[in-house]
Amino acid sequence: MLSRLRHDLLAITERDPASRGTLETALTYPGLHALWAHRVAHALWRRRLRFAARVVASLARALTGVDIHPAATLGEGVFIDHALGVVIGETAVVGDDVTIYQGVTLGGTSLTHEKRHPTIGNRVIIGAGAKVLGPITIGDDSRVGANAVVVNSVPANSVVVGIPGRVIARSSDAKNPTFKIVASELVPDPVGLSLESLFERLHDVEEEIGVRGRAHEVRPSAAGIWSGDDFSI
Q1: Using CA atoms, how far apart are residues 69 and 152, in angstroms rounded to an integer?
Q2: Per-residue 3-state assignment (H helix, E strand, C coil) for 22-87
Q3: Parallel, antiparallel, or unpaired: how do β-strands 119-120 and 79-80 relate?
Q4: DSSP sequence for 107-136
Q5: Of the residues 35, 41, 97, 216, which has the fewest C-beta atoms closer than 10 A?
Q6: How far, in Å, CA of 85 to CA of 204, rounded?
Q7: Does residue 225 carry a pLDDT above 70?
Q8: Within 10 A of 135 (CB to CB), how many other CB atoms are there?
Q9: CATH 2.40.50.100 correct for 2-182
């Protein structure tokens, strides 16, 4: 247990550029406190001390803003950055060296007593506000974009963004991935794409009307009254 807690601490100091040392991190990082509390709650849960485990989890949620079910399985070196609003469900499994940002939900999509929460592979990064739902698997070394809603399994070494989440990039080299989750060119703008398509179709219609000589200028009458025909489609 002590070795695992130490690994959790060192993972943050190594991966967070804002960290200024182990002492400051140990005392001031709520995500680390939530993770350590979960280690205790999970140990109690496995020993069938379920009530005590839920009490520890509830206290941790009140103090840190992170809600982790005691039965959830979290690997070593998990980093919950900024912490607030993170929810991890009962049957969720999180691998080693995973980074989870604020507002992330690892939730379920059913009420049955079975595996209903996601399995997160090793070294996965889950962006702020992302929702990973259902008994799906996020492959090792993948990246989930901010505010993505992922409801299908994702292969290893992938970038997944959008609602619903879809893979937009893959890398075969886990140690030196060729993608960056923050690259603007990798994140599509659905509104922009829709407007672009609409403008293209409008241009085609205008050209067709112009060729047929049917184009006319729409304007009000001298009395300032618009004709009903001007608004017909």
Answers
A1: 22
A2: HHHHHHHCHHHHHHHHHHHHHHHHHCCCHHHHHHHHHHHHHHHCCEECCCCEECCCCEECCCCCCE
A3: unpaired
A4: E-S--SSS--S-EE-TT-EE-TT-EEESS-
A5: 216
A6: 48
A7: no
A8: 16
A9: no
Query: What is the residue whose two structure tokens read 């080693």?
Result: 96
Instruction: Give me the pLDDT at residue 17, please.
Output: 83
Which of 61-65, 73-77, 220-224 is predicted least confidently?
A: 220-224
β-bridge mates for residue 158, sequence order: 170
Q: How far apart are CA 68 and CA 138, in angstroms?
A: 19
- How high is the pLDDT of residue 187? 54
For 179-209, what is each residue's pLDDT tens digit? Answer: 444 444 455 556 766 777 888 888 888 887 8
pLDDT in tens, 144-161: 998 999 999 999 988 898
Tokens encoding 71: 């039965």
Only one residue has tokens 């992938």, namely 158
**Overall average pLDDT of the 30-35 stretch:** 91
Q: Which two structure tokens, joined as six digits, stand for 64? A: 């840190």
CA atoms within 13 A on the CB side of 94: 32
Q: From residue 230, how far is each of 30, 129, 212, 215, 217 by CA, in Å?
A: 62, 46, 18, 12, 9
